[in-house]
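The records we work with from here on pair a chain with its fold. Taken together, the C-alpha cells spell out the fold as the letters spell out the chain. To see the layout at work, look at the sequence and C-alpha cells printed below.
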Amino acid sequence: QAGGLKNILSRTLAGEKVEGFNFNFTAADIEQAKKDVAEGGYWSAEKTSERLVEVAKAISGGDVKQKEALTAAIKEGFKQAEELWGGKLPQISQDTYRLTMEKLDKWAKGE
C-alpha cells in the first residue's frame, strides 16, 4: 500500500506525482470539502454517523437483536479503513465512529 492512503494524499498535496493517482484539487474543491466536513455538512461526523446507523437499521430490518452483529461489522469496517489509511484515522473519522456507536446504543435501548 506504499504507506497507505494517508501517505498518498500527503504526497499529492505536497505537489508530488504519485503513480496511479491523478488528483487535481482546485481552490474551489478545497473550499467545498471544508464546508462538507464542517458541522452540519454532508460529510460531518454527525451526518455520516446518522447515515451509518440508518443503513445498519435497514440491514437489520429494524431488529435491535442484531445490534451486536451490526456493531461488529462497523468496527471491522473502521479497522479495515484504518489499515488502508496507513495509521490512525483522522479525528473526523474517530468522531464518526464514536457517534455511530452511541447512536446504535441508544437505538438498542429504545431511545
DSSP finds five helices and no strands in the chain. The helical segments are 4-13, 27-37, 45-60, 67-85, 91-108. The chain has a mean pLDDT of 90. The first helix runs from residue 4 to 13.
